[in-house]
Amino acid sequence: MLRVNLDIFDQGSNIGAAGPDWLTSPFTAWGLLVLAGLLGTLLAMLAYDRIRARKSVRVRRMKKSSDRDVEAMVELYERLFAEECRVDSAEVVSWLDEDRALRKTKTHTCLHFFFVGKVNDKVVCMLKAIYSTEWKFLFIAYYGIDTTENLARRRCAPDMLKALGRLVTKELRGCRAIVFEVQAPDQRLSEKQNAERKARIRLFRETARRLGINIFKVDVDYLQPQMVVAANGKYSEESMALMYAPLNATPIAQGNLSRAAIMEILRFVYLEIYRPIFRHDAAKDFAYQSYLNSLLNLYEADLPDSCALT
Question: What is the CA radius of gyration of the chain?
Answer without folding.
Answer: 28
